[in-house]
Amino acid sequence: MKVKVKEGSDEDELDTPREDEGSAIPVGTRVIAYLIDVGIAIGLGFGVVIIAGFLGTIVGGILGKLAYPLALGFILTRDGLPFLNGQSPGKTAMKIKAVTVDGKSLAGNWQPALVRNVVLLIPFFPIVELVVLLTREDKPDQGIRLGDEWAKTRVVRAAPPVALEEESA
């Protein structure tokens, strides 16, 4: 399935499609991006627990209880966070991004970002998603996990940043 990728608003539509645009992202690339994001979520949780330990019993106890919800919140919203331009840190590192089927960024687009990621919080469901990705290789729906299917999203290669042209005086 080919996906047309748009950056930002409708005016930013790409005039010339890239050769790899819409091509399936290798499973290994997606798994590495996911593991990077999970590592960041765990780091956020541990960071909050460590800070809570330094703050004492009352404030630290309250803050310590926020560690797990913070980590889960990051996993759920990582593709829709506007300050990350709709691209999780793991996806940024692997030069991929999740977009809607019509190519719009997930930045601030909370519904598809949440739907595609909430399934990963169900116990053992990430394994189911990995099996789905592996069994769909070399098929028309290659690279589409169940979370993407339900959220109507796709993972595509991220366009390299466009260099700003310098104005000559």
Distance between the termini: 46 Å
Number of β-strand runs:
2
Strand-residue fraction?
Answer: 5-15%
Trace the largest sheet across and list its strands. 1-2
Question: If you had to describe this structure to a student in words, what would you say it looks like?
Answer:
- The model is unreliable at 1-22 (pLDDT under 50).
- The longest helix is centred in the N-terminal third of the chain and has 29 residues, at 27-55.
- This protein has one domain (24-157).
- Helix 1 (27-55) runs antiparallel to helix 3.
- It is built from 7 helices and 2 strands; from the N terminus they run H-H-H-H-E-H-H-H-E.
- It has helices at residues 27-55, 57-64, 67-77, 89-94, 110-118, 125-135, 146-151; strands at 96-100, 153-157.
- It is mainly alpha-helical and 169 residues long.
- Helix content is 47%, strand content 6%.
Q: What's a concise summary of this model?
A:
With 169 residues, this protein is mainly alpha-helical. The protein contains 7 helices and 2 strands. The termini are far apart.
